[in-house]
Amino acid sequence: MADDDPAYVRARVPDYADYADEASRHHTDLVLRTFVGEHLNDARQRVGDELDERTSKTLDELILHCQFTDQAFIHWLDHARLDPPLVASLVAIDRRLVELAERVKDANASDLHDLLEAIDIAFEHRREPLPA
Fold first, then answer.
1. Is residue 33 part of a domain?
2. Least confident among 45-49, 86-90, 101-105
3. What's the number of domains the chain is made of?
4. Is 1 a domain residue?
5. What is the structure's pLDDT at 1?
6. What DSSP string runs through 10-43?
7. Residue 104, domain member (yes or no)
8. Given this model, what pLDDT does residue 131 score?
9. Could you tell me if residue 47 is inside a domain?
């Protein structure tokens, strides 16, 4: 994690509190998903008619993902002992999600698919510490 990851995310996502504070973990997840989802929804409105079927489907799936809590991730968060390196790892992934969402804001239809795949991968990376 870069030392500025938490500050970077907090500057763009109101009420982001990282995951070190057990009481705010759910809220942190919610505000992050809301931020990403709003950018995705804006892209849907801006270039939705220009998207191919595959990209449109991926966009819709990611918007839906942002609307609902990932139950496995939240359950893990509720019971995890997050040491500083693990918190740093999660915040770095969140920064990546924020950066990608900001790129979506200005992406044209032809660039959107690769960004959406990167967002999907970043969300999956948040789940990597979960026990198998």
1. yes
2. 86-90
3. 1
4. no
5. 47
6. HHHSTT--TTTSGGGHHHHHHHHHHHHHHHHHHH
7. yes
8. 63
9. yes
